[in-house]
UniProtKB/TrEMBL annotation:
GO terms for cellular component: cytosol. Keywords: Carbohydrate metabolism, Hydrolase, Magnesium, Metal-binding. It catalyses: 2-phosphoglycolate + H2O = glycolate + phosphate. Pathway: Organic acid metabolism; glycolate biosynthesis; glycolate from 2-phosphoglycolate: step 1/1. Transmembrane segments: none annotated. InterPro entries: HAD-like_hydrolase_sf, HAD-like_sf, HAD-SF_hydro_IA, HAD_2, HAD_sf, PGP-like_dom2, PGPase_prok. Its cofactor is Mg(2+). It comes from Neptuniibacter caesariensis. The active site is at D17. Pfam families: HAD_2. This is Phosphoglycolate phosphatase. Its EC number is 3.1.3.18. The lineage of its organism: Bacteria, Pseudomonadati, Pseudomonadota, Gammaproteobacteria, Oceanospirillales. Belongs to the HAD-like hydrolase superfamily. CbbY/CbbZ/Gph/YieH family. PANTHER family: PHOSPHOGLYCOLATE PHOSPHATASE.
Length: 225
């Protein structure tokens, strides 16, 4: 299906988002958030709320959990710093324990790799957790380039991490495809000048991904190939 976006050819580079696209990571994230809230004597948030808060990096997730709101104030006071460090410690203890690949993911990566398409990973998750999650789920061998939310000063929806991945691979935007689950992936791809395919099952802050008008929506990633 994705060939339609490249005049019948394969793209040279496919950049994948991680959370909500390749991996259902919310169970481990929600557990770390709830342990953090417990340690601060606050009511726990639970899986469904955390699902709507994931996608803009660890710092934003902690701010949303403290405010119990998708749109928290940006304040980074002592309470926030304590909460952030607690979250990092709890999430480091269990990053990929309950996290699972979505159906069709391994088939998609395998088929693209066999076809000679280069693969990259561009996530807003901090690098240390990205690395341990890729290793825990035995995905690390697929990706020639991996950038996290702390690899550059800007993260998605800014195009910078996508652009850096293209430069690292020596590939132009018009032969690169972004694959994601959220409005941040669509915006970053648009700003970087590459087409974008989305999955509808991920974390898009409670809104249908069709509202963000990606070039293509596939129910599972194996439908992309
Ligand atoms: O917000 C995060 O930590 C990760 O989000 P992403 O993998 O969907 O970019
Ligand atoms: Mg995502």
């Amino acid at each position: 299906m994705m060939r339609e976006l490249f005049s019948g050819d394969m793209p040279q580079l496919v950049l994948f988002d991680l959370d909500g696209t390749l991996v259902d990571s919310v169970p481990d994230l929600a557990q770390a958030v709830d342990k953090m809230l417990c340690a601060l004597d606050r009511p726990v948030a639970g899986l469904e709320k955390v699902r709507t808060w994931v996608g803009n990096g660890a710092a934003m997730l902690v701010k949303r959990a403290l405010a119990d709101d998708l749109y928290p104030s940006g304040e980074e006071d002592d309470q926030y710093r304590r909460a952030y460090n607690l979250f990092l410690d709890f999430y480091a203890q269990a990053t990929a324990d309950q996290s699972e690949l979505y159906p069709g993911v391994r088939e998609c990566l395998e088929s693209l790799a066999v076809s000679g398409v280069r693969l990259g990973l561009v996530t807003n998750k901090p690098m240390r957790f990205t690395r341990s999650m890729l290793e825990g789920l035995q995905l690390d061998s697929y990706f020639g380039v991996v950038f996290g939310g702390d690899s550059f000063p800007e993260k998605k929806p800014h195009p910078r991490p996508l652009q850096e991945a293209m430069v690292a691979c020596g590939v132009e935007p018009d032969v690169t495809l972004m694959v994601g689950d959220s409005v941040s992936d669509v915006r970053a791809a648009r700003a970087a000048g590459c087409p974008v395919v989305c999955v509808p099952y991920g974390y898009n802050h409670g809104s249908p991904i069709s509202e963000s008008q990606p070039d293509l929506i596939v129910e599972t990633l194996d439908q992309m190939i």
